[in-house]
Write a structure and sequence with these properties.
Length: 560
Amino acid sequence: MSDAPKLILDYVYEHEAAQPDKVFLTQPVGNGQVVDYTWGQVLDQSRRMAAHLKSLGFEPGARIAMLAKNSAHFIMAELAIWMAGGTTVAIFPTETADNVRYVLDHCEASLLFVGKLDTWEQQKSGIRDRLPCIALPLAPAIGHDTWNEIVARTAPLAGRPARKADELAMLAYTSGSTGQPKGVMQNFGRITQAVESGIADPNLQWPEGVEPRVLSYLPLAHVYERAVVECRSLVDGRGHIFFSESLATFMDDLKRARPTLFVSVPRLWLKFQQAVLANLPAAQLDAMLDNPAMREAVGRKVLAGLGLDEVRFAVSGSAPIPPALMDWYRRLGLPMFEGYAMTEDFAYSFCTTPELNAAGHVGVARPGVQVRISPEGEILIKSPGQMMGYYKRPELNAESFTEDGFFRTGDLGELRSDGQLKLTGRVKELFKTAKGKYVAPAPIENRLLAHPMLESAMVSGVGQPAPYAVVVLADTLRPQVGDAAVRARVEAGLGQLLEKVNAELASHEQLRMLVVAAEPWTMENGQLTPTMKIKRSRIEAAVAPQVEAWYERSGAVLWA
């Protein structure tokens, strides 16, 4: 009998055999139509593509890349790559041509799967002519073989092709919020162990008889979605993954899925709240939720309007969520959790629990995770999902780990006596004003984002007399600021916000002004990462020519 550990592909083969007719993936194909794929169909297509990849004679562990939005065939392609002995390299579907080329060249990709994309015409110049490509269903016309053509002519790979625990499963390139993307190496053993530990977590167990249904819309190129949605479903076998067709159909896709697990990021949780409050004034909703006789029915109705009324686990991750926003959802009756993790630990380190969810904290270490705080206040973590290291970056590996194997997260934090962790900033984001004292921008930004007028904020002010903040108004508010009365209301509201926030800060942290950005920050203009975190250095560089003039102007609220 083999002593080899059970790995993610072993689980997949078990589900293929035990429940071949169970629907696993549901893919929209346009005009309101969807295609369901059972476990048997998913594995049949993956096996056929795996046989084709093996026929190409790539070396063991060959890096095979994917540039694609989320789809059923993203998961099928990943399985095919693994069964064929390769390593997956998923590229964010919003990446620029320059970053696409960098990743493909850096990982020495042997082949590229191209899937559904919104900006293919701008991205294709990043793909060298010599690189073989395969078009997934729903991909733009790329002039290469298509998935459907290949699987139609290729017999499926037989048996249970195995991988070893220490073999490289994926290179996960970070989304590049600072500097060049780094390739995080994850092997089969680590990703399996992280997912198994998460499924076994006693604090987050599925109620009996409830199917884990999830809408996959955050980029699968990011470890957050890859671990919590894809890999969890591959190991668990009970889940049903739905996909979103487009931003325009998102609410319809959500209501089709009726998810029981919903994973999102703070910026989107904020947008959902703002959509509700645009139709139902906050004061009116608060009054109804304060009424015990109405609270449950009102909360259920609001959640049903968002398609979230069947959610048993709602998770926010990727960046800190303002405590007031989390409390708002909990008042509606949404079981809301916050996770803290990173690409380097395969999204497995901290999470709130039903009992341990103090405001402003990200919960406790998950089973198997060790944590300590360095003398400098940096969070150090050792996780079952800990990476093998950064690809081709031995010097960075040496900097990133302590002598006893803890990963230096780059985050600053404090641990309570009950193990709950509070994030207090990023080591590299700390800056000094002219007063010579350090300012941590993230906690101040979180205070600002509790205000319903705002959707984004960035605090800066290196070498200035006091910090400042640039803010982006909520989607629903931006089109109205041409109206003088609305503009005056915004200035008054933000002025009050500035007074309130400054009253809660130390004197050296207090903001000189709030500056309303002229345009929203987006992935398209390069000021948000694919997971909607701000690219601080890009925004600072963009506003740098104006900063001195801001300090010369009077007033607490300025317009860029």
